Amino acid sequence: MIRQCIFGAGLLLFVCQGSAQKPSFEVASIRVNTSGSDGGSMGPRGNRLVAENVTLRNLLTYAYSPANGQFLDEQIIGGPDWARTDHFDIEAKAEGNARVVPGEQTKAMLQSLLEDRFQLRAHRETRDLPVYNLVLTKNGPKLSADQTPPDPRRSFISFVSEGQQLSPLPRGALRMVTGPSATTVTGTAIIVPRIVMLLQGKSDRIILDKTGFSGLIDVQLEFSQELGPGESPSLFTATQQIGLKLEPAKAPLEVVVIDSVQHPSQN
Predict the structure, then answer these.
(1) What are the average pLDDT values for consecutive 10-residue runs of the chain, which has 267 residues?
(2) CA distance to 5, 14, 17, 70, 186, per residue, from 1 (Å)
């Protein structure tokens, strides 16, 4: 529940009291971003949530994302046109003196913020949506020579642009290098769920791991999102190079249906 609002020069500052059902930010500010830039960022920083140049739909996909998965724009149903076009900067602080707030608590507080300031009213449903099932090809993946589990602390995913200086990758880590016409992915001693996590960012559907494969594999992929003369294979074809295949399918997925929402007041 909002207890106090202080307005001034395009800045919305407000104090939120927590409810029994859902935690709320203690203090938060919202500004309309008029930069016209396409790029944006959002995420927790210690005991704060900081979002820059994000749309309402960006906020929704973050707020409702599951603990160990992604929530795609296609899982947000309904809403006004401005939910895709208007951009906002948000900085919100959690109540208390904790230096770090768990990610799931931050998402719950963001849901409260959306309900308070955007007057969001929404409900969850389960609907059949298009997905990709990741399955094994006939021959399946080739196992890495060394099946010793890598150090999980070094199993990161690195994103770089073509032409940047590259350092050696530890076992278990993946690197995606994006160029003007193709993307390459490399790594050694990789588990399939980590490949799914990486490919999800290049997919227009949620990818479901149906392989049942638990071994470690080496990855060397090159693909483009568009097919044309002289271009690299598509993502679908490239995954088959490592014994995996994406198959279009449908699956019951949770969606958030927007019943009503309002543009946050600026005066």
Answers:
(1) 37 41 88 88 89 95 86 92 96 86 90 95 96 95 95 88 88 92 92 89 88 96 67 81 95 96 76
(2) 11, 11, 5, 28, 48
